[in-house]
Every structure is written in C-alpha cells, then in structure tokens.
C-alpha cells in the first residue's frame, strides 16, 4: 500500500473546488427555515427562567429588604416569568410555521428535483 499516494489524493480532494449537492442545499434551506424560531425559543426561555428566579429570590427574601411588599412583588415577577415559560412553546410553534411557509416553495421545488433524478 502506497501511503504517499493516499496522502496526495487526500490533499488534492481537500483543495479541489467543491460543488454543493442538491441534498446539501435542501438541508441548508431546512435549517434556515427553523433557525429563527429555535433561537427565539431558547432566548425567550432563558430570559423567562431568569425573571422567575428573580421573583423567587424576592419572595424568599434572598434579595430585597424582606418586607411584605417585596414578597408580593416577588410573587408577581415570578408569575410573569412562569407565564413567559408557558407561552414559549406556542410562540415557537407559530414562528416555526411562519418559517416553513416562507421557505416551503423553494424546499418543495428542490425536493422535487432531487426525487426526479
């Protein structure tokens, strides 16, 4: 076995111009359709969790002056955070459907081209 020949072929393949296949383009379009909803969902979920944590800290007197007003404020802030976490999934689904509608025509055309080959 000639290892020099294998190494040379490997390097030649690495530097050769690459042509994107239609399947790769289809995967990129699919990822492009789903990425905005995923980013929003993670970001909104993290922010909602942090808001809930602040509310819980206020309610349990970890932060604040420990008065009844801070307890009530903590409960209200915590409920706002829980509501945000609860609405996160329906918002994600709506954004995902919007992204799919936006790229549906291009994805369907490319998928049809791939299946006809």
List strands and helices in order, with pairings.
Layout: H1 3-15, H2 22-59, H3 68-116
Characterization of this structure:
- 85% of the residues lie in helices and 0% in strands.
- The protein is an all-alpha fold and 117 residues long.
- The longest helix is centred in the last third of the chain and has 49 residues, at 68-116.
Characteristic key phrases:
117 residues; mainly alpha; elongated
The level of helicity is over 70%
Order of helices and strands: HHH
Give the distance, in angstroms, between the N- and C-terminal Cα atoms: 37 Å
In terms of structural class, how would the helical and strand content be classed?
mainly alpha
Rg estimate, integer Å: 25 Å
Beta fraction: under 5%
Tell me the number of helical segments per DSSP (H or I, 4 or more residues long): 3
Q: What is the β-strand count?
A: 0
Shape: elongated
Poorly predicted runs are none
Mean pLDDT: 92
Q: Please outline the major beta sheet.
A: none
Short description:
The protein has helices at residues 3-15, 22-59, 68-116. With 117 residues, the chain is mainly α.
């Amino acid at each position: 076995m000639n290892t020099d020949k294998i190494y040379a072929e490997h390097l030649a393949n690495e530097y050769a111009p690459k042509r994107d296949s239609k399947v790769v383009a289809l995967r990129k379009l699919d990822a492009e359709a789903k990425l905005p909803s995923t980013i929003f969902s993670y970001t909104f979920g993290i922010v909602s969790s942090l808001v809930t944590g602040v509310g819980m800290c206020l309610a349990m007197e970890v932060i604040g002056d420990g008065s009844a007003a801070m307890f009530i404020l903590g409960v209200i802030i915590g409920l706002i955070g829980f509501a945000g976490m609860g609405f996160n999934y329906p918002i994600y689904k709506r954004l995902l459907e919007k992204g799919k509608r936006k790229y549906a025509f291009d994805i369907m055309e490319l998928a049809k081209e791939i299946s006809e080959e």
